[in-house]
């Protein structure tokens, strides 16, 4: 029995992981040029390139790869939204989140964490509340790391009651959940 596996694809993805581990942007660019020579656009490999450039600290190159995609998917959007959120380019993160939704690309749990990170960093409670509604409607309100991001938003905005409500409703709490609620309560008690 023969498996139909594209070894080039696997090799390129593994080479990108190695280039990131070595911190070698030159090797990453060489791999990038080889990927561009492939006959068809490969979203998987371009997503891997976006991630590699982001991890190496080359957001402009990651952005260029994203912009070259004919049909970016949820992974593409999530990666670049996350990069913008972490690079204090929240406005662009918000715009891309809205763009992906307009295109009918449904956010996943990682997308929600990325956009909530942008909300936290910009203290954009209004957008964050809208995202919270989407999280509930899309069924991600039981995902611990999504709820942790929501708690982080409400905590940064000084809304202890929302943090406690989310915490109490969480089916599974982790160390981040506990730390967030404790820090929020300590912060609140300092101002009472």
Automatic annotation (TrEMBL):
PPR repeats lie at residues 73-107. The keyword Repeat applies. Keywords: Repeat. GO terms for molecular function: RNA binding. Transmembrane segments: none annotated. GO terms for biological process: RNA modification. The keyword Repeat applies. PANTHER family: OS07G0578800 PROTEIN-RELATED, OS08G0340900 PROTEIN. NCBIfam families: PPR. This is Pentatricopeptide repeat-containing protein. It comes from Anisodus tanguticus.
């Amino acid at each position: 029995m023969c498996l139909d596996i594209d070894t080039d694809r696997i090799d390129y993805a593994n080479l990108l992981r190695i280039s990131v581990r070595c911190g070698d942007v030159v090797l990453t660019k060489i791999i990038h040029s080889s990927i561009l020579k492939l006959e068809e656009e490969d979203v998987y490999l371009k997503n891997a390139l976006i991630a590699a450039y982001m991890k190496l600290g080359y957001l402009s190159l990651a952005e260029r790869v994203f912009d070259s995609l004919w049909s970016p998917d949820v992974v593409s959007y999530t990666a670049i939204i996350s990069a913008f959120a972490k690079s204090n380019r929240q406005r662009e993160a918000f715009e891309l989140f809205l763009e992906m939704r307009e295109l009918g690309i449904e956010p996943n749990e990682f997308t929600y964490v990325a956009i909530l990170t942008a909300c936290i960093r910009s203290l954009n409670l209004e957008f964050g509340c809208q995202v919270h509604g989407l999280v509930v409607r899309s069924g991600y309100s039981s995902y611990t790391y999504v709820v942790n991001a929501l708690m982080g938003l409400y905590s940064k905005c000084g809304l202890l009651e929302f943090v406690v409500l989310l915490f109490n409703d969480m089916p599974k709490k982790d160390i981040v959940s506990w730390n967030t609620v404790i820090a929020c309560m300590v912060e609140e008690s300092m101002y009472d």
